[in-house]
Structure formats: C-alpha cells, structure tokens
Amino acid sequence: MKDPFFQPVSGFDLPRYAGVPTFMRLPYVPPDHARFADVDIGLVGIPWDGGTSNRTGPRHGPRQLRDLSTMMRLEHGVTHVRPFEAANCADIGDVGPNPVDLPDTLDRITAFYRTLQQSGIRPLTAGGDHLCTLPILRALGADGPLAMIQFDSHTDLYDTHFGGFRYSHGTPFRRAIEEGLLDPTKMVQIGIRGSKADQTDLEYAAEVGVRIIPVHEFFDRGVAHVMDEARERVGDHPTYVTYDIDFVDPTFAPGTGTPEVGGPNSYQALQVVRALTGVKIVGADVVEVSPPFDQSGGTALLGATLMFELLCQMV
Ligand code: MN
Ligand code: MN
C-alpha cells in the first residue's frame, strides 16, 4: 500500500539536517489538508506542560523530537519492519494549547483527538507532560474503557495535589479510571521506583486492581518475562501504550522533569517496545521529554527512537 505522497524525505535527496523538520521527515498533513482522510497513523505534538509539578520544559518536547526524529530511516534494524510502506503515516501537526488555562487546554486536546477518531486516524503523540494523556483517553476511550500498558517510574495515580487540585501529571490515570476510560484490571505499569510522598497511589492501585511491576521486579525477572505478563494482561483488548521517558535511567534520559535513578538502560527501553508485538494498539505516546534539561539532545534522540519503535508496532 506504499503511497508516494506519504514517504519521508530521503537523507540521500536532502541531508538530514536540512529542510523543515517534520516528525520522521514525513509530509505535514494538518486536518484541513486534502490528504488528511488518507492518513492511517498521525504523529501529533502536544507542546504543553501545564500539569508539571516540578521542573517544566516538556512544552518544548515536540519541536525537539521533530528535529531529532530526522535521524529515523526507512527500516527497523532488527525486525526489518518498514512502517512507511505498511501504513500512511504523516505529521498532522500540534494541538494548540492555551498555556494559561489548564481546563481549556484539556478540552482542546480532546476535541483534536475526536477529529482523528472520526477520520479513522490512530495517533502517535509526542508530549508534553503526562497530563496530556488524560484528554487523549477522553477521546479514544469514549466508547468503552481501554487497556493500557504504561512505562514510567511513577504511577501517576495520585488523587490530588496542591490543596485538592485534581489535575496534574501525577493524577491522570486515577482520573481516567474514575471516568471509565481505562479498565484498571487491564492496566499494567512497569518500572515504578523512587522515593514517595505517601502510599496512597499504591493503595488505590491495589483497591481497583492495577498491576504494578516495580523496577526491582523488572530487573529480577527480566524484560521477556515481564512483557509476557503485560501482553497477557491486556490480551486482545484495545490498548493504549503510554511511555514516560522517566522510565529510562537518567544516565540515558536526563532531559526530564522528575528523574529517578536506578532504571532501565536505553537498550532495555527499546526492548520493552519490541515485546509489544500482537498488542492491539489504538494509540501511543512518548511524554515528559524536557529539552531544557537535555544538554546533549540524547533524551530527545531516545524519545524519537521510541516513537519509531512504537510506530513499527502500530503498523
Ligand atoms: Mn508519568
Ligand atoms: Mn514519570
């Protein structure tokens, strides 16, 4: 089904540092474009970090991820999947946030993803902080709760922050469960670690049945064993995959707002995505890449590579 229009600009025609940096050098096809209805998988940016509780910066993620994603070539090095021939992929632009109004931004994001749903486009998103995933799920999970696989060093299952405020990047999945967008018995969170304010997130997870695989269990059992369990848990249910870059050890991914040491290396970071084969992925994201803390650009390169790995699974 290779469509010439949806092929990336070749690095042999125009060097990778030249030209306008769309995601993976794909054509830019925003919703008002004549070919929008032909897009199968849309790469979207959400330049917004209004839910960030500590160090801001993921609002700059999509632009930096676009730049570093120009390094992605045509074929996966291990699986030999050629995603741009298997599906019509395009950079469909950014969701325009309102940087001074959180509820308005959540509504804007949901409205954008409803448009994608109506057009049959599966989204692969570059965040933004992890609160961005909630309004995405409000669109994608509207017809019934989804399963979810989450790579993260945090559960993001807290109830409130800052005196009862219910929306931050530490609360999205509690809200999504409450709103019936996620089925907690079909959720798995992998890589959880670090010091904690309290145990209320873990207590909630136990109460509703979210499976948490802390990082010590991840290392004790190994990638293959853990991912077998994750695939089994979501089964053939429509599944959202959310990838917080702070899942990865800060040696490999320092450019993020809430880093936690003692995590997987960059190879293991890719391995877990390669183990998603067979999962029915309805959408995916890579969030919390924070260019102001990413001096070498290495975190964004890893983030862009993770997007490519996810894309190869989605096609
Ligand atoms: Mn997170
Ligand atoms: Mn996190």
What would your notes on this structure say?
The protein has 315 residues and is an alpha/beta fold. The chain has one domain: Arginase, Chain A (3-Layer(aba) Sandwich), CATH 3.40.800.10. The protein has 10 helices and 8 strands. Strands 2-1-3-8-7-4-5-6 form an 8-stranded parallel beta sheet, with helices on both faces. The N and C termini lie close together (12 Å). The mean pLDDT is 97. The structure holds manganese (II) ion (2 copies). The site of one manganese (II) ion has 6 residues, from loops. One manganese (II) ion (MN) binds next to loops.
Topology readout:
Layout: E1 41-45, H1 61-68, H2 83-86, E2 89-94, H3 102-118, E3 122-126, H4 133-140, E4 146-151, H5 172-178, E5 182-192, H6 200-208, E6 211-214, H7 215-221, H8 223-234, E7 239-244, H9 266-274, E8 281-287, H10 298-314
Parallel strand pairs: 1-2, 1-3, 3-8, 4-5, 4-7, 5-6, 7-8
Helix pairs in contact: 1-10, 3-4, 4-5, 7-8, 9-10
- The CATH topology comes to Arginase, Chain A
Distinct small molecules bound, one entry per kind? manganese (II) ion
* Tally of DSSP β-strands: 8
Q: In total, how many domains does the architecture comprise? A: 1
CATH superfamily: Ureohydrolase domain
**Structural class by sheet pairing and helices:** alpha/beta
CATH class: Alpha Beta
Percent in helix: 25-40%
Which series of helices and strands comes N to C? Answer: EHHEHEHEHEHEHHEHEH
What is the averaged pLDDT score? 97
Strand content: 15-25%
| Shape by Cα distribution | globular
How is the biggest beta sheet arranged? 8 strands, parallel
Tell me the distance between the termini: 12 Å
Give start-end ranges of low-pLDDT stretches.
none
